Amino acid sequence: MAESPPQTAFAEEALTHLDTLYRGALRLTRDPDQAQDLVQEAYLRAIRYQHSYQQGTNMKAWLFAIMRNLFWDRFKGSRKDDVSLDDVGEFILYEKLRDEGARPEADVLDKLAASEVVKAVEQLPPLHREVVLLVDVEGFSYKDAAQALGVPIGTVMSRLHRARQQLQKSLYDYAVESGIVRGSGGQAVPQS
Amino acid sequence: MKCKDCEEKLDRFVDRELSPTEVLELQLHLESCPDCTEHYDFQVHLKRLVRHACECDAPPQAFRDKLRQLLT
Hints:
The structure holds 2 protein chains of 2 kinds. By secondary structure, chain A is mostly helical. Helices cover 64% and strands 0% of the residues of chain A. Chain A binds chain B through residues 8, 11-12, 14-15, 18-19, 22-23, 26-27, 32, 36, 39-40, 43-44, 47, 93-95, 104-106, 109, 112, 114-115, 117-118, 121, 132-133, 135-137, 139, 141-142, 157, 160-161, 164, 167-168, and chain B through 11-12, 15-17, 38-39, 41-43, 45-47, 49-60, 63-64, 66-68, 70-72.
């Protein structure tokens, strides 16, 4: 049997990461049609610039970088709005639940609807959302996430920390609203 | 290791980003501290919850086919 042409082999390998790219695009755009457009454009660009991919490096991170850069190109100007996670303070869901006597604390997590978890992730500002997608959903190391996002590892860690604080706060609010936990007057844990 | 140090390293432990020495120190602490062990289990549970909730969306088959045709 004849060997595949190099471009076909490259495309085949790239397509093994389609699920990751699609999930990332869906969570970033929050729209299936836009996600498909974004992924298709990212793949076409990847094929066009395949010479810039270094064999042996993380192709998934390289492809994700192309996809998220396209996303940011399309939403240029919205970066300024991508801050404001400052007012959450130190919010540790585990401690909050423990203080309220919700034991075992992990049982509360089992009662949260998956759709609400997705909603909480999608409510994160994109710069923070993409870190959660890479590290928590796709299992990237901090180093690979840093490569995909084009930022230092320290930035990955700080964005992840803030994103998780916000995520835990959103899940707690949902748990209170839906009666899963009683809550303490809807007050967040004071900032440290 | 004190509980405060453990808490500071918990995220990186859950993400498997600690050095082997740090992992050992933290494991030793967890063995002797039920509170931190419970917190660790909770954080692992939470991370798994986020992953499971977000990873169930797969691209439609028609899109897969279209992309494959376009690229190969």
